[in-house]
Structure formats: C-alpha cells, structure tokens
Amino acid sequence: MTVNLLDYDREGLTHFLTEMGEKPFRAKQILKWIHQSGSADFSEMSDLSKGLRDKLAGHARVELPQVLRDHVAADGTRKWLLSVGESNGIETVFIPESRRGTLCISSQVGCALACTFCSTGRQGFNRNLTVAEIIGQLWLADKTLRDSVDVYRPMIPGQDRQTERMVTNVVMMGMGEPLTNFENVVTALHLMLDDHAYGLSRRRVTVSTSGVVPAMDRLRERCPVALAVSLHAPNDVLRDDLVPINKKYPLKELMAVCRRYLSAAPRDFITFEYVMLDGVNDSITHANELVELVKDVPCKFNLIPFNAFPNSGFKRSSSEAIRVFRDVLMQAGLVTTVRKTRGDDIAAACGQLAGQVRDKTRRTAHGIADSIAMELLQ
Ligand code: SAH
Ligand code: SF4
Description:
Elements: E1 3-4, H1 10-19, H2 26-36, H3 50-59, E2 60-61, E3 66-72, E4 78-83, E5 89-97, E6 100-104, E7 108-110, H4 119-122, E8 125-128, H5 131-147, H6 149-152, E9 169-172, H7 182-193, E10 205-209, H8 213-222, E11 226-230, H9 236-242, H10 251-262, E12 270-276, H11 284-293, E13 299-305, H12 319-331, E14 335-338, H13 363-366, H14 370-377
Parallel strand pairs: 1-2, 6-9, 9-10, 10-11, 11-12, 12-13, 13-14
Antiparallel strand pairs: 3-4, 4-5, 5-6, 7-8
Helix pairs in contact: 1-2, 5-7, 8-10, 11-12
C-alpha cells in the first residue's frame, strides 16, 4: 500500500524521504509541486531526478477527496460536496468578498458535540477527517478557483489587485469540531502556514471551537493561529443546553483559557461567535450579562443570525432584536459585527452544512444523547 503524501507536513515528508535514503531538501521541492503547482502526478515534477520520480510512484500517491457536487450561489459563494468514502460526504465553502476570499473547511464527518441549533450536530458523528482530507479541501478549492479565476474576478471588486491566489483566508468553521481532531488539524495547519505550501499568515487562518478547553491550551503551545470561540450564551444554565460541552468545560474555565491563549495568539483579541436565536439568547438582559462575562478578555463579537434547517425548532432573531443586542455590546466598548448570511440559496451558510453522515452514535435514531458526545471526548 502506498502512502498519501497529502497526509504529510514538511516534517513528516522529510522523515518519509530520509527513510527512503533521499536528501531532506527534496521535501520542499515536493511540497511546492503538490501544494503550489497543484500537481498530483510525480511525472510532472521536473526538478526531481527520473530515479526519484519512479521511486515515488512506487511508494506514494497524491490522493484527493472526490468532488460529488459543485454549486455556485447567486452571490458567488461556492460549495463543494466531497466524498470521503463509505457514503460519507463533507462540505467545503468558498466565500468571495471584496479583497479577500475565505475558504471554510470541515474537520470531521458530522460532529459529536451535539449543539442543539446546529445541523451538523444533529446528524451525529462518523469519524475524524485525515490530514489529506482536510488539506485536500484547500488543494481542490485553490486549484479549481485558479482555473476559473476569470469567472470570479468580475464578482470581487478589488480582487484584481491580489496575487493569483483566490483563497486568502481559511476558517475551520465547516462540519465538525476541529479541536477534537487535534493532531490532524495541527498538521493541516502547518501546511496552510508553510511558505513551501500555502504560505498563509497565522492571522489569516482561524480555528473555531465550541470550547474544548485543554485542546485550546495545546493549540496555543503547538500552533497558535487566530481563534474564534462559539459562545452563544452568557451563563452556564443556558449554555449547558445549547452547547452541551459546556457541562464539561463551563464558562469560567473557558474565559480563563481565552486569556491564556492571547499570550501567544497572532491577533490581540479572541472572536466570540454568538448565534442569534429568537426568544432564547437574544434579550437585552442576555447582552448585559455577556458584557459582564467577557470583561477581562480582549475580544470582538460576531453575531450570527441563526440559519434555519428542517425541524431545527429554533427561529432567527428579528433584525430589530439583533440591532438592539449589537448596540448594547457596542456601547460597552465591544467591537461587534453581524455576519452577513452568504450562500443560503445553496445551504452553504453557517450551521447548514450537512454533507452525508453515516451516524455511528445513532443519535438521529435515539434523540440527542449528550453522554455519547462526552464519551467520544475522553
Ligand atoms: N465546531 C466549531 C466549528 C464549526 S461550526 C464550532 O462550533 O465553533 C461554525 C460556527 O457556526 C459556530 O460558531 C457554530 O456555532 C455556528 N452555527 C452552527 N449552527 C448554526 C446555525 N444553524 N446558524 C448559524 N450559525 C450556526
Ligand atoms: Fe459541532 Fe460546532 Fe455544530 Fe457544535 S456548532 S455541533 S461543535 S459543528
């Protein structure tokens, strides 16, 4: 069985090559071919000797997830459904904006954490994605978008002033909880940051987490990138309900780990995400409680109008409620933006990503079982 070179960051590839008796610097050349030239074929790698190319062909491969569907929304948002085997599918979304293009990447097939308002969480959990499946999403998007750059440029004012790269930012906000797939996510992050691969700055790569506290400390130590934390409630009683992992790592611990993270973070603030659920977490009292909760954490807020999915049981807060809520935060000196909902005509907005999950927790059949999510975290 050959190895998939997409599973390796520079360190891993160097190790693989030296084991084969090759020089370590070959790793940089091969990374460039794979991740910068978008090559999956060793015979194209013209600055490698014929002998090495043949050896690679015998021991290794570059294997990508298969594209099952590719949708472009009216606003230019693009969503790919990718097959990762055994009828499991994941979704990747590209969001073109003026002067930047953001790719939203998935980290797991489904999610075990069962947040009640999240479509991915409702589907249960199958497995962690491999490094190749995580970085393969960026590989595919980068290559496809560069090939269709003429279609996109007119849609993106200011984009023509950029390099030929269309993906300028990556957010780990697709399906899954990135910090419960820690090692694979960190290896994929290394590739995103490596100058011989995608060369993105740490500030332009964001991990979003629902608050897996010990893994947040490990991320700070191993690979500090920009951090978004899904807060969604200003007190433990409500957050226990909406984000069940809060029962394991309550708000006091979450605020403390956010402060620790900032000592190494590439940005001097944490982004708190807060989904706006009508009549659930969107009152003025909640906003005031939130101001008090985060008073010792340098942060910005991103309010996300709830995106509906079938049988969610929740409603999006009214525009008026969102405006009032934002004003309370702003008046307390907290920079607050309201996320524009993008691509909802192709169900590509936050929390709508569903892919195809063969649920192994049987959550869908037996109702949402928090205990299963907790077990998977041990
Ligand atoms: N598991 C990670 C990252 C993926 S979810 C996390 O929870 O942070 C990305 C963001 O979308 C999170 O802030 C999540 O809470 C939010 N989200 C989930 N379901 C949503 C929905 N139906 N409408 C709006 N935002 C949602
Ligand atoms: Fe998982 Fe994030 Fe959805 Fe919660 S919001 S179920 S952590 S993907």
